[in-house]
Amino acid sequence: MTNADSGRGTASVTMRDVAKAAGVSVATVSHVVNDKPGARIGDDARKRVQDAVEALHYRPNALAKTLSQGSSRFIGLVADAIATTPFAGQIIHGAQDEAWKHGYVLLVANTDGNAAAENDAIAMMLEHQVRGILYSTWYHREIEVPPALANTDTVLVDCFADGSGLPSVVPDEELGGRTATRELVDAGHRRIAFINTTTPSPAQSGRLAGYLAALDEAGIDRDDALVLSAAPDQEGGYASLDAVLASGATAVFCHNDRVAMGLYDGLRERGLRIPDDIAVVGFDNQDIIAAHLRPPLSTVELPHYELGAAGVRLLLGIDTRPASLVSRVACPPVRRHSI
Amino acid sequence: MTNADSGRGTASVTMRDVAKAAGVSVATVSHVVNDKPGARIGDDARKRVQDAVEALHYRPNALAKTLSQGSSRFIGLVADAIATTPFAGQIIHGAQDEAWKHGYVLLVANTDGNAAAENDAIAMMLEHQVRGILYSTWYHREIEVPPALANTDTVLVDCFADGSGLPSVVPDEELGGRTATRELVDAGHRRIAFINTTTPSPAQSGRLAGYLAALDEAGIDRDDALVLSAAPDQEGGYASLDAVLASGATAVFCHNDRVAMGLYDGLRERGLRIPDDIAVVGFDNQDIIAAHLRPPLSTVELPHYELGAAGVRLLLGIDTRPASLVSRVACPPVRRHSI
């Protein structure tokens, strides 16, 4: 590599070089550099070491430091699908920012949900003496805890495992469903359809519970004819059009933004205007989609960045753990022009 | 953490424990575990060490191993925007898979394009004695090389720096533009509009060059009236509608899938059918969008996974470097129903 031969200079300066330049022993340099408590080093020697470190551009070896201190500054993050969703990236981003803030570095492994890759990733992290592992999934669900995680501190992110005793951080699906529905209620709607997903999941049950709670709070009678179900994508939303229109709804809460996007297509084909003829609210605040539909979609946000950050805070003991072991993060409303 | 106290067992088994169980010296265990060449260990002693390693679930300390071998098994990946695009995830995924295949672990840092965060990330990686660094951007562009990269082997991924002497891996924008245009030519179109981006970039110049080359190859006269420009998002595509219709085009090559999505909205509002009234091809094969438009969008794929994988192969010297320093990766056609 063209820049490698000339540039390795600073990396090849050793503790011995620093000791020689400062006129002290290697042990003294080590004590100063690693800031060992209890080592008695005179101010003069300390100053000479610090000057030599600066003059020689000496870079202490982080691995040696880890060994001498007996613990590493790594946090592992095992994710099942970095590649297939923009969401996982936000979890990584939040976890990394929070880890760095506290002097930790994130080791990231993508497993594609493959058990062998998962075991390899966890073994690698244990070999690097991670402080602990965040185990995350790209959509909120219950998991079987991989046995290898028994060997280290673990926090589950965007997933949970009842009876495992492991702390977890998940989105508050019910509160999110209430928030989305209340946005429609507050705009004056009384006949509100909910297109739920066909996939059993905490999102399915939680958002439905939130929808019903918001109706109850507003004194609106529940009506089973208004609760529909569809595949959680554009095709599902488009296919729901007839049922939505037949229900007599003036507003629709869609399980996610992709469903809303498909519903938009169907409504447009019938010449119906959003929000004048029918109001729509989504869920997720999906990047690239929500803000760019016509009209831009009002929705609630899945707090992926915050899930990652909160996971690190739980792991490091910065946040107190709730007695229930499950921390729920709110999904805030994002107001645009579809209500 | 509930599982921490009980579970740390395996991590606390030391080389000394193994030596005691096997009835050999610690040095012998070290030689066997680290597979040191030149160390003469009898078959019997080797077998006893291996049995003891297994029986005690001894896990060699990867950090100590790195130090004893004088080189690490880390590759660094610095990305400017993990969070704001699903693309970066694919680069990470490809780099990680390829790194693992060769026994390396990826250290990932997200910098949000912030120079201070970038310096911190690179310094951290150097401290961990990475084998080298992949420096990546979320869209293909020319960069200023951060000075700290002079201290290690570097490969640029999805970006380049003329005159830096650094190898880089980028998408072949021109070939991609030719491929997209040829898909329309092959379907019988002669009057093909191109909605280019307003943002100066290799994608802007490369895709235009490919569009023109494909016309030339097909013996179709160039017509400036067919080359439009717009913001590279849904809003830009929607705003291009009148110009597209005025140009008399029967087919449109859109700078990216988001532009195609906006154009779809406009065409639908005018009652025009895709592909019967007008054919559309995109660029990117953007997840969550391209396959789910009505009709599903024909496009060419930005090969982000392969960019990450090829970057690792270049770094490790597995792929031969092209004389030009720039490796271009093809963008394959993805055929759906908009042509």
How many domains of chain A? The number is 3
How is the quaternary structure best described? Answer: homodimer
Major beta sheet, strand line-up of chain A:
2-1-3-4-5-11
Order of helices and strands of chain A: HHHHHHEHEHEEEHEHEHHEHEEHEE
Structural class given helices, strands, pairing of chain A?
alpha/beta
The averaged pLDDT of chain A comes out at 87
Task: Tell me about this structure.
The structure is a homodimer of 339-residue chains. Chain A folds into 3 domains: 66 residues, lambda repressor-like DNA-binding domains (434 Repressor (Amino-terminal Domain), Orthogonal Bundle); 125 residues, Response regulator (Rossmann fold), CATH 3.40.50.2300; 130 residues, Response regulator (Rossmann fold), CATH 3.40.50.2300. In chain A, the strands form 3 sheets. Chain A has a 6-stranded parallel β-sheet with strand order 2-1-3-4-5-11, sandwiched between helices. Chain A has a 4-stranded parallel β-sheet with strand order 7-6-8-9. The first copy, chain A, starts with a helix and ends in a 5-residue tail after the last strand. In chain A, helix 4 packs across helix 5. The relative contact order of chain A is 0.11. Helices cover 42% and strands 17% of the residues of chain A. Chain A is α/β, with parallel strands linked by helices. Chain A has 14 helices and 12 strands. Chains A, B: InterPro entries: HTH_LacI, LacI/GalR-like_sensor, Lambda_DNA-bd_dom_sf, Peripla_BP_I. Chains A, B: It comes from Mycetocola reblochoni.
